[in-house]
Automatic annotation (TrEMBL), chains A, B:
UniProt keywords, alphabetically: Signal
GO molecular function, one term: carbohydrate binding
Protein name: Putative alpha-1,2-mannosidase
SUPFAM superfamilies recorded: Six-hairpin glycosidases
Residue ranges occupied by any Glycosyl hydrolase family domain in the UniProt entry: 285-746
């Protein structure tokens, strides 16, 4: 039956839609509030994220709000730098800041945003700012320059139109960075090559200690003069001076606080600057620059096409605000993991060694604690399988290059940051394998997964393996670690069994049950235990503190994290009714006496449900497991309405490299991967009247919602390919076969749909 | 005739000598006084110079005396580090300091040399210290450890015998360095690999900004425990902690002030530590380690063999002290330029990019202002031609990788330091080419020479090309630069003409005469001129100051630097008699009222002749050009007796990477290359009764001195291959043909020998 369907479902080109998909994106969503997104130019998964930085001169604490460089409320732009995270809760990057300056006086410091003219920064207005995927433009009022940005995969292109008659300059400020602080910049360099190419590098510490980035820059007009300046004071010993002084050519400058002033004279046409990055070396950056030829307009058109193709994986029919939210969400999910290897395949690994990747593109920027949940599962539906295989091969190659011999935890620019907890590269790999994606080396991957789950020095794993839980007196955040390890272990077991490695499967199946060892049935909460077996006291399920029993959360959020065995959890909680009551208690909790302002990334609160951070993300879907899918539908309605808007402050929390957006995208379509590795998506309710996915295998899968309206927020009926679907989940293979998932929406709950045990989503003990 | 001779002269193995040549070397010569040599273990031209550092905790000024890490007078050893310059006047290196520590308490700071037990440093005594080429041993009294060192090309091997029953530890102190100062260490890393290999790196600034060095280390006994420690205080933001605490395994540490403590427990046999270096990356260091297998004894024996072969290029019969001096001098000339490329040919260039060298070994540590004089010319006689081609190919490859597009000036670890003046890679290359050494790419080399001589931004070259001299109001040390450029230019012209590039030859022949533009015939001195043509006043021919008219010298020394045209210079000075009188005035100058203590490297004074620094090195030979070779013989007797001793303070100045030693070696054999590029050696007087050189072409050239004694210090008669030699120079091809240069020595000067114009050494205007 499926085979017969398949032929009919293989996609023909979609009929012309109303406008390009890229036009439905609002790249400013998340640039205010807590979203930490950036509005600048980037290609899908591009190595370059060329975006305005409105402020970087901040201490570490102040930096949080400027994690992506740009804040919508800021009045000035400091410059345009080439690397940014989309929605990270911690930050770094902001590399190779370029700022156009016009006139005879060139300031080399950014100056005070409150004092116009005090530096090279410039005021700007949103009225003269526009942006879309792969393109950003703004008028720099003080400089009198129209600035445009676009980007290819490893290339960013600037176009600066200077006012007629004013001398054109660029300032390259290698001192500028996000999460900057004294001593961050370890070393940097500028080289002006004989052919006019400017190359350079920067080594920094901080979030990723010893990170190296190289660049190459070419200009559409020749330099009339240049100066390389070392702004570092008090260098006890600088060595001997290199050739070049005053107006003489300076070929090279090395130092810790470098700037370049580039002069172009009075130009009769806009200045275009092509910049490529490399993680390998300056020659790699030059090669990357040459691998993507073309001027500003050519790169802009090519990248717009790439975005239209990528976003065109789904054709969405929904109310305008929701359509914008969903396309923007999809856009945000297609930014990371970003390209890290050079065009020739060379890449720098976590051990700082350069290797060559063959058969795949190395990717980095892995915010895995966030993205294992929905971001990576989404990519298996909207991107070619090779994209996921790039991810898996990159993870495995990184592990093999890791000084620790384990998979990435939170990695960018090829380097490990040891941020957050778990070994969540594991569910990403298992999810891919179990979905039948096999363009990677599975035995090597399983080996990497087992190694990561067995590295005793990491996050209390030694204790976990010995005792069946992480003891809080040996390791902070022990409760969260215990349950996340147990889930990750379950995905290892699943993949190992599918590979016929029953030895590994048995070992990790056992560990998958270790969540029980930290669950206090008496209080009904996951709790941290001491090495002596006792639960740690005092216990306050609302407390959120760094280094506490939990990770960026408390007992309310973390007690629900058993994706591999929700049924067993719910039995511990006393059954369906008590579970529903406890879920309700979470959402309806009265926070009025609580203050979480000390904790970063605790935003988007609905009672003790915290949508702005990931531990809550699957919780609204759990009513399904207790036989009350209509309650899930209600909660999703509540969350979507309160947590997402098509405005700069439209994300209630950090987008976390696409996870917040992936949640919305799945939820908008009506289902969500509560347990990656299960090959099931739990059905919620759709927020689109129709969405047609063109799947990686070329087939089409349609979601339709008859009668959808604000009032009709409940699912009355569901059919899959015309047949009633009595269960509250759908399997991955059912989607990949192509077909139609059709909802009939109603104003009142259908409390009889999918309530039976067998109709509920996967759970070990439920089957 | 020569052809017939050749067959007879092709070398058969020499009859067994009395002892190995390496046994004649006293590696402690120069480790006291001003020599700046080190006594540690190294192979010929080895990348590794594994040697004790007696003190490194000094400020920049104090560091001068510890330029090579070891001072013979010091009472303690701080540790054994892997890189050292032999005789540099400026310094750096001292990388990867290793110190054995015994017992239960391990200090991580070196402590105070005056307070025994205050740190990991240890007292030692010369009575329990021994060293020979490729081997060093000492008893560390405080640690109770017998320490031995040896080295291969890219490998150093330590052997530490701990006292029975005491726990064995090593401290690796990556903070330690020569010419250390706050902020020098930019970044460093330690990695403990799963196979037990310790790898790491260090990036430093200072003399060579942005220098990178990588290492790999393996141990004959397994680690029982280890700790990596970051000693940096006040890091504002360190990122998140990597796995491993307390007794857990720590796989990696990155930071700016790193140390490792390695524990081995109680050992029943000596601990051997094999260490390889690389300028490329840590994997390169591992590969270099594996490319030279073998334990301590195997490496020691192999390197001793290599030294015996290298030193065996000359078989010397001389009074014991002189024989020691000469073999030690030869040893010192065979240390640099040292190997820089990895075993697989990869190397890091002056632009920090990694390339692969094929067909030659990349060498670095080019102290060219010193070594173009006699060190490089000597290598053409005592080393295979490939060694010189390695040098030339390395210089040319460096130039092609240089951000400035010019040949190295003073380079080490592949990086330019811009120390001293001139473009003296040029005479090194020309000397090689003109001697018929052709295993390098001559057109590329000539291109590099011309580029270096035409780089306007370098050292006033733009002005020099425009005006015919460097004006002192535009560029410091203008007088020295003018004459050194003119000489370098002459060698370009010579090589270009030999290559048939008459265009280039004509251009640089003209420039070779520019020395005249800075020579004040009225005062009889080379003087600095202003841009307006006037000589700068006040003028004091005895003044020595940094940034003065001259480079590490004054008018007395520099007025003799016209190697390409001494005849013309002497005519300017008023002819032979006046020249001889002026030379005598220099040597016999009364310094009693002068104080040069402010100037480094001004040592070894004989009047205004300063043997401790290079500008004087050719001067004693200039009497020959004025028809008074017996005066040269007298001065050489005077210099050798006063400036060289077989004792730690036996060098009167910095050995300067072999130049001081090369002077002695040539002089000891009776001739010296006053003008490299002329293919002539000026005859002085021999200090050996017999020396047999086995030349690179396999032939033998013998120097014999009949009747040599302290009294018989004059040359009475000279024959070449049995025929009287009436001229005071010998040509390179005459040496390379093999044969015998025989002197008959006498107690009184032969004032009639080689006085005729035609009998004098090469001079443009003299021919």
């Amino acid at each position: 039956m499926r085979i017969i369907l398949a032929a009919a479902l293989v996609a023909a080109p979609l009929a012309a839609q109303t406008g390009r998909p890229s036009e439905a994106v609002n790249v400013f969503i998340g640039t205010g509030g807590e979203g930490h997104t950036y509005p600048g130019a980037t290609a899908p998964f591009g190595m370059v994220q060329l975006s305005p930085d409105t402020d970087t001169g901040c201490t570490i604490r102040d930096c949080y709000g400027h994690a992506a460089g740009y804040r919508y409320d800021d009045p000035t732009i400091q410059g345009f730098s080439h690397t940014h995270f989309s929605g990270a809760g911690h930050s770094d990057l902001g590399d190779v800041l370029v700022m156009p300056v016009a006139g005879d006086r060139v300031a080399l410091d950014p100056g005070d945003a409150k004092v116009p003219g005090s530096g090279y920064r410039s005021r700007f207005s949103h009225a003269r700012e526009t942006a879309s995927p792969g393109y950003y433009a703004v008028t720099l009022d003080d400089a009198g320059v129209r600035a445009e940005l676009t980007a290819g995969t490893r290339v960013g292109v600037h176009r600066y139109a200077f006012a007629a008659g004013r001398a054109a300059h660029l300032v390259i400020d290698l001192r500028s960075s996000l999460y900057n602080y004294p001593g961050k910049i370890l070393w940097s360099g500028l080289h002006l090559r004989a052919d006019g190419t400017l190359t350079g590098f920067r080594e920094t510490r901080g979030w990723a200690p010893g990170r190296k980035l190289f660049f190459a820059m070419r200009f559409s007009s020749p330099l009339t003069d240049h100066a390389f300046v070392d702004r570092e004071e008090k260098v006890p010993y600088k060595g001997f001076a290199a050739p070049g002084r005053g107006s003489d050519a300076v070929a090279e400058k090395l130092g810790r606080q470098l700037e370049a002033q580039l002069d172009f004279g009075r130009l009769t046409k806009p200045l275009e600057v092509r910049v490529a990055l490399s993680g390998v070396d300056e020659n790699g950056a030059v090669a990357n620059l040459e691998a993507e030829p073309g001027d500003f307009d050519a790169i802009r058109v090519a990248t717009r096409g790439a975005w239209d193709r990528a976003l065109g994986a789904v054709d969405i029919d929904a109310p305008p605000a929701m359509r914008t939210n969903l396309y923007t969400a999809l856009y945000h999910t297609l930014l990371a993991p970003s390209v890290w290897s050079d065009a020739d395949g060379r890449w720098r690994g976590p051990d700082d060694q350069v290797r060559v990747a063959t058969g795949y593109t190395v990717r980095s920027t892995f915010s895995l604690w966030d993205t294992f949940r929905a971001e990576h599962p989404l990519l298996t539906l909207v991107q070619p399988a090779q994209r996921t295989c790039d991810v898996v091969s990159s993870l495995v190659a990184s592990r093999e290059a890791s000084p620790y011999g384990i998979l990435p935890v939170w990695q960018f620019a090829g380097r490990e940051t040891w941020t957050m907890i778990g070994y969540h590269a594991v569910p990403v790999i298992a999810d891919a394998y179990l979905k039948g994606i096999r363009c990677f080396d599975a035995p090597r991957a399983l080996d990497a997964m087992v190694a990561s789950a067995s590295y005793a020095s990491y996050g209390g794993l030694g204790e976990y393996m010995k005792r069946g839980y992480v003891p809080i007196d040996k390791e902070p955040e022990a409760a969260s670690k215990t349950v996340e390890y147990a889930y990750d272990d379950w995905t290892i077991a699943r993949m190992a069994r599918a590979m016929g490695r029953t030895d590994v499967a048995a070992q990790f199946d056992k560990r998958a049950g270790y969540w029980r060892n930290s669950f206090d049935a008496k209080s009904g909460f996951l709790r941290a235990r001491l090495a002596n077996g006792a639960y740690r006291t005092p216990f306050d399920p609302t407390a959120i503190n760094y280094g506490s029993d939990y990770t960026e959360g408390n007992a309310w959020q973390y007690s629900w994290f058993v994706p591999q065995d929700q049924g067993a959890l719910f039995r511990l909680l006393g059954g369906d009714a008590k579970t529903v009551a406890k879920l309700d208690a979470m959402f309806d909790f009265d926070n009025s006496k609580l203050d979480y302002s000390h904790a970063e990334d605790i935003a988007g609160l609905i009672g003790q449900y915290i949508h702005g951070n990931e531990p809550s993300h699957h919780v609204a879907y759990l009513y399904n497991y207790a036989g009350a899918p209509w309650r899930t539908q209600e909660r999703l309605t509540q969350i979507v309405a309160s947590q997402y808007k098509p405005t700069p402050d439209g994300l209630s929390g950090n987008d976390d490299l696409g996870q917040m957006s992936a949640w919305l995208f799945f939820t908008g379509l009506g289902f969500y991967p509560v347990a990656p590795g299960s090959n099931e998506y739990v059905i919620g309710r759709p927020f689109v009247s129709r969405a047609v996915m063109t799947l990686p295998n070329g087939r089409r899968f349609t979601v339709a919602a008859d009668g959808l309206s604000e009032a009709n927020r409940y699912v009355s009926q569901v059919t899959l390919n015309g047949k009633p679907l009595a269960r509250s989940f759908i399997r991955h293979d059912e989607i990949m076969a192509g077909g139609e998932l059709r909802f009939v929406m109603g104003a009142v709950p259908n409390k009889g749909w999918a309530t039976a045990k067998a109709a509920r989503p996967y759970s070990i003990s439920g089957y």
